[in-house]
Design a protein that fits this description.
By secondary structure, the chain is α/β, with parallel strands linked by helices. The protein is 31% helix and 14% strand. Helix 2 crosses helix 3 and helix 4 crosses helix 5.
């Protein structure tokens, strides 16, 4: 599929670029997207929630009142879970929610998300550019040419592009991703996806299973 390349000023150029059909025109796998989203969200969970059991509550071990003659239930100590301020039964404990998703499922999800973006006309290819000043306002001016009303926007770059990352850091609705470190969550919820021309060439090779690329994402 041939698509037009836009300049950073928002105007069409006379150039076009080929989108690899094995990456940008695949059958959308909703299952793979679902698993990739769940995996990312689970891996982001901190898992530090913690409650104290009756063994950890800072109370005295003395009996609160005598065993017989009061008419009340027998109490061994005030740390019982049925008393106010006592320990918690089966409460949350620190744990690791992260898990590893199979490589093929993850790659299938990214291909499906990219194909979905093309199908829904959410993906735009830009000629390579850099933000020489590194200023936020310069990056915001470029993004506003393609994303109206400050919609959630994703920019996919080909390499580090330090100045682009720096100038995008303070724009809350903008997320910058490297072509080999995509995020299923950002691609799924992004209203506009801007891909640099050099990043398209890398994506064409990196996510095509028929091409053997070193450092393929696991």
């Amino acid at each position: 599929m041939q698509v037009k390349i836009f300049s950073k000023n928002g105007s069409e150029t006379s150039s076009t670029i080929e989108l690899n059909p094995n990456v940008f025109e695949v059958e959308i796998s909703e299952g793979s997207v679902y698993y990739a989203l769940n995996n990312e969200l689970a891996n982001r969970r901190v898992g530090t929630a913690c409650t104290k059991t009756r063994a950890e509550v800072n109370y005295s071990n003395n009996k609160p009142f005598k065993q017989k003659g009061t008419g009340n239930a027998r109490r061994g100590d005030p740390k019982s879970p049925v008393l106010v301020g006592g320990g918690t039964i089966f409460g949350p404990r620190p744990r690791d929610y992260s898990y590893k998703l199979p490589k093929k499922v993850k790659r299938s999800a990214f291909r499906s998300l990219l194909s979905s973006a093309v199908k829904e006309n959410r993906l735009t290819v830009l000629e390579d550019f850099d933000i020489e000043s590194g200023k936020t306002k310069d990056m915001a001016n470029i993004v506003e040419k393609f994303s109206t009303n400050k919609e959630r926007t994703v920019v996919i770059i080909s390499d580090d592009h330090t100045l682009i990352r720096r100038s995008s850091a303070n724009i809350p609705y903008l997320h910058v991703l490297a072509y080999n470190k995509l995020s299923a969550k950002e691609l799924f919820y992004g209203k506009k996806i801007l891909v640099l021309e050099s990043a398209v060439n890398n994506l064409n090779k990196f996510y095509d299973d028929n091409v053997n690329v070193e450092g393929a994402e696991e």
